[in-house]
Amino acid sequence: MKPGAFCAHLLIPLCVFALPVICAGTAAAEEPAVDRYGGNLNLVTRATGYFRLEETRGRWWLITPEGHPWVALGVNHLGEMKSADIYARTVLAKRLGRDWSRAFAEVEKQCREWGFNSAGFQAPAELRDTMPYIISTPFMAASFWQEPLAYADVFAPTFAVEAETKALAAAAEMKANPMAIAWTWTDSTSWDIKFTRGTRGTDYVSFMRELPADAPGRQRYTEFLRQRYKRDIAALNGAYGTAFASFDDVVGSALDRDRERIFADDREFLRLIARQYFQTISEPFRREHPAGLLMGDRFHLRDYPDEVLVEAAKVIDVLGIQPGDHFYPPQTRLPRPDETWFDAVEFDRLHRLTGKPIVIADHQCGFFDQQTPKTGGWFQYATVDEAAASYDRFLRDAFARPYLTGYFRCQYLTIYKDHIKRFKQGLVRVDGTPFEDYVRSVADTNHEVARLTYATWFTAAP
User: Fold this and answer.
1) How many helices (H) and strands (E) does the chain have?
2) How far is CA 99 from CA 87, 91, 94, 175, 426, in A?
3) Residue 336 — very low, low, confident or very high, per pLDDT cuts 50/70/90?
4) E strands within 380-442?
5) What are phi and psi of 125, to 5 degrees?
């Protein structure tokens, strides 16, 4: 066990008193009393009845509805357990059948023992009354990691109707259930033009350019060019090295997308796409629930041009980032060989650029195990000890930044993913039994990181 680590529950649901805890091999320690959401009762600020963000005492904090700072440590994709063929292999299925209330009660107990206090993204209904969670709603037909990549015509009236419907549903759920922390849009699409062209052969602007001539997105692109070149097609042809008869004739297949002027125009039109995207979805949500926290996209680290983040920052409250070179490797050399290192330089830059607090929306690393020898989706270490050390290093480095408000680990149950021919490794094996050594170390890290973060409340000036 790490020096100073706590082995008992950091956060116990519905507990309003402190319990003395004695851990084997450590001195006696008192766990903090917590409110029903997990907020530290020793730290007090304004209660509003809903989750909110506050910058105070030298850092950003998530504040529970009862007015107590809270260090969010979550596990994502818990709802995947409901897949019949996946769940059937587990020890829970053998003991409890499909009694989901009892099954998820045991999952919650485990997660809390390991220092996790949130059901994260894609939480099952059975946990939404007892653990804080984030509402996730899909908007793109395919996220950045899927094939084929897909985009939406955000200028189309049908997209506005979809946004209104989904935003009102999310706002209603958040107002009805104070356990709902924020609203996010599942996963980001692939935003960066250069990166997406290099890895996928397409990009968002090319998608718009290649829509049918009567599509709203194509028409908005054409109007963008008319305004940018003051309705002078000869000026565009001179800049593009083309011979179009009119602005309506500009199509993706006829353009040299690497030409400097074309690339610059594409970046500027991407800004307009992002502006339309974020405003169209956020406006009905804000209208219905002005106080609700909005995360927006869960951006893939390094797949976001600054102009997209600037537009996002106009409407979101917290920036969600998914570190990971696990789907499409970066086109430029990383400062570290993989994304299991917290890149403080880049995260500092993101915070300066957007002015927003940040959550690590989805992240982990794997390790070799006899039952799951080939893990995918995330970097795989050779041993449990290496993976546990990586987790510890990443969380300590991340929460040392005053703008970091939460970390959400990818995956509880290990699942085989046929599209990558690998196991997506969780905290428990395919049969539902824990990776004992790993979760013991993860628990130590979670408790200690939470303790150290809460301690900053007392060491910083009010």
Assistant:
1) 13, 18
2) 12, 13, 11, 28, 22
3) confident
4) 380-381, 404-410, 415-417, 422-424
5) -60, -30
Per-residue tokens: 429:
């094996």
**Which tokens in the block code for residue 319?**
């920036």
Task: State phi, psi for 183 to the nearest 5 degrees.
Answer: -115, 130
DSSP state of 454: H
Of 293, 270, 282, 274, the C-alpha closest to 160 is: 282
pLDDT at position 327 is 65
pLDDT above 50 (res 361): yes
Beta strands in 103-256 (DSSP E): 120-121, 133-136, 180-184
Q: Indicate the pLDDT class of residue 3, thresholds 50, 70 and 90.
A: very low
Q: β-strand 69-70 against 59-63: which pairing, if any?
A: antiparallel
Beta strand segments in 382-437, E: 404-410, 415-417, 422-424
Rounded CA separation 145/231 (Å): 39
pLDDT tens digits, one per residue of 145-196: 777 888 999 999 999 999 999 999 999 999 999 999 999 998 889 999 998 9
From the CB of residue 138, how many other CB atoms can be counted at a distance below 10 Å? 11
Structure tokens at 436: 């004992």
- CATH fourth-level superfamily of 50-193+279-459: Glycosidases (3.20.20.80)
Q: What residues does each domain of the chain span?
A: 50-193+279-459
Q: Would you say residue 307 has pLDDT above 80?
A: yes
Nearest-angstrom CA–CA distance, 141 and 152? 7
Q: Does residue 82 come out as left (phi exceeding 0), alpha (psi in the -120 to 50 range) or beta?
A: alpha
Q: Which residues of 271-294 are buried (b: 16+ CB within 10 A; e: fewer)?
A: ebbbbbbbebbbebbbebbeebbb
CB 81 within 8 A of CB 431: no
CB 182 within 8 A of CB 292: yes
Tokens 């107590």 belong to 68
CA distances from 58 to 78, 401, 458 (A): 33, 10, 10
Q: How far apart are the first and last CA of the chain?
A: 34
Please give the pLDDT value at position 229: 98
